[in-house]
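ugh ok fine here u go
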Amino acid sequence: MFLIRRKIIIARLALVVTLMLTLFAATSRASANVTMLVLGRRTCGTATAFVLYDAFSEGNGPFYAVFAADLNGNGVYGEAGEGLKFVKIGPGGTAGYIVGNLTFRAVPEGSTIAVTAYEADSDGNIVSPQLTAVSYVCTHKPATDLYPPNTGFTIPGLAITAKITATAIQIYSTPSATTGTIIGGLASGTIVNVIGRNERGDWLQVQFGGGSGWIMWVTNALVFGPYRQLPVTG
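structure:
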């Protein structure tokens, strides 16, 4: 029985991929880059997403298909703990479909989870439009039917996060170690939301303790998301 179900799922996936590629072949070579977001296997803590890639990226390669989830319904995708997946698609990539397996903190059964996708270059710039999100009501038992785009969703916002890689890092009141005051610290492995940067780009403003603070991130953290598009806030 399991083998039969697996064959059915694979057949359905093959059909959707065929339809996606057919639609792709019929479109012009506009800079759409990634399109046609579809969800496959999904639970309250995981989601498998598929996008179509046209291989006509612009910007600085290598390029990445980025998949991000929204668990709290605030319209901002890929916040700390919500699930963010970068899939490398090479210097130029090959046309076809890209698969992203998202893993995030499990939410209660019956919660609504939404997933979006976009393409970014190696400089952190978005090089394709953010795709309209696909949402689903989760169950602990995996759903395996292929879920089409939810066209009623608005274009989502995208979170930018930083993961601390140093043993520990200090948080300052301003983007300066000489004039700023130390207001706290972050341990290695901590993920925080990023809300701004300084003019030079070597300091990031992060959410901290109900407010915000500044970290010198270049040698101390990894940044995920389109960080070049952060507003200059200090």
